[in-house]
């Protein structure tokens, strides 16, 4: 399974970005898709998840602002980010979890929110 994240960039506070993650390979056993955020100098933390059945969950700090979704026909995972804040700055990684194999990771895409 390979993941390629893209869509990051520079945006002003209050702006929006949509991150995408193209997923290829044998994904029929993937049960969970995630977006993680790594702020400068901090550990990677889970932002949002979506199960293979479509159930979503979010970190409290992004609820109401971020939306995770999947387009199965395009094999793409998305993270729509609205009302961005400077603390949302960092590298965003997409991940896919397969029982017995663990997490597959994309290379990350940088988001910078200017104040």
Tell me what you see in this structure:
The chain is mainly β and 115 residues long. The chain is built from no helices and eleven strands. The strands form two sheets. Strands 2, 4, 5, 6, 9, 10 and 11 form a seven-stranded mixed β-sheet that branches. The protein is globular and about 40 Å long. The model has no long low-confidence stretch (mean pLDDT 96).
Summarize the structure.
By secondary structure, the chain is mostly beta strands. Helix content is 0%, strand content 59%. The protein has strands spanning 2-6, 9-12, 17-24, 30-38, 44-51, 56-58, 66-71, 76-81, 90-98, 102-105, 109-114.
SSE map:
Blueprint: E1 2-6, E2 9-12, E3 17-24, E4 30-38, E5 44-51, E6 56-58, E7 66-71, E8 76-81, E9 90-98, E10 102-105, E11 109-114
Parallel strand pairs: 2-11
Antiparallel strand pairs: 1-3, 3-8, 4-5, 4-9, 5-6, 7-8, 9-10, 9-11
DSSP, total strands:
11
Q: How do the SSEs run, as a string of H and E?
A: EEEEEEEEEEE
Shape: globular
Low-confidence stretches: none
Using brief descriptors, characterize the structure shown.
single chain; 115 residues; mainly beta; 7-stranded mixed beta sheet; 4-stranded antiparallel beta sheet; 0% helix; 59% strand; globular
